[in-house]
Amino acid sequence: IKISLFRVNSINTDNVDMMNEYYFKTMHHEFAHILHQTKTYPKEFRLISIKDYEPFSWQDKGDLEAQQKGFVSPYASSQSREDFVEVIANYIVKNDTQWSTILANANTGTDSNGVNGKTIILKKLAICRNWLRDSWSINLDSLRSEVQYRQSHIDMTKLLLEIK
User: Fold this and answer.
1) Which of 48, 77, 88, 89 has a CA that sits 20 to 30 A from residue 130's CA?
2) CA torsion 157→98→62→37, rounded to 10°?
3) Distance (Å, whole) CA 81 – CA 99
4) Taking the alpha carbons of 53, 55, 58, 60 in that order, is the dihedral positive or negative?
5) What is the pTM of this model?
């Protein structure tokens, strides 16, 4: 499998949001696919939003509409496997303010069953958290904490010294 990252000549290490959107979120998203293709995620996850997946029109949805229906992004509303990895990737790279905004937006709407969007996202996150722990011994919150720390200390000189 090949994963392509675009706009590499435009990397701006002073813009964490841009790096997350075009690089880091994509890497976490694709790595989560590798994990779930090796060990299947729980069927329970697939059933949460089964009536609301729109594989052919997800791109017509804005962030707010997707979040109100219990998806962290419009792309997450395309199908369950994308939803699963989008929850993981977004949770890892979004800072506390950004994650809180997603949940606040989600709290203003419901899915086709009348379930609150925030409740849905938190249920999905719990399933992802437990699956990563039980299947891979990965503590999602520890991983997120490390990523958030590194994002807030992106000084490349320091980061390169830590890697060595």
Assistant:
1) 77
2) 70
3) 21
4) negative
5) 0.89
Q: Residue 116 pairs with which residues in a beta bridge?
A: 110
| CA dihedral of 137, 142, 143, 144, whole degrees rounded to 10 | 140
Question: Do 106 and 150 touch, CB atoms closer than 8 A?
Answer: no
Handedness of CA 131, 152, 70, 27 (dihedral sign): negative
- Counting Cα atoms < 13 Å in the Cβ hemisphere of 151 gives 21
| Number of helices (H), then strands (E), in the chain | 9, 0
3-class DSSP state of 2: coil
Do residues 91 and 81 lie in contact, with contact meaning Cβ atoms separated by under 8 Å? Answer: no
Token reading at 112: 């086709």
Task: pLDDT tens for the chain, 164 residues: list them.
Answer: 667 777 777 777 778 888 888 788 989 999 999 999 999 999 999 999 999 999 999 999 999 999 999 999 999 999 999 999 999 999 999 999 999 999 999 999 999 999 999 999 999 999 999 999 999 999 999 999 999 998 887 765 555 666 65
- Give me Rg for the CA atoms of the chain: 16
State the Cα angle at 42 between 122 and 104, rounded to 5°. Answer: 15
CA distance 70 to 103: 9
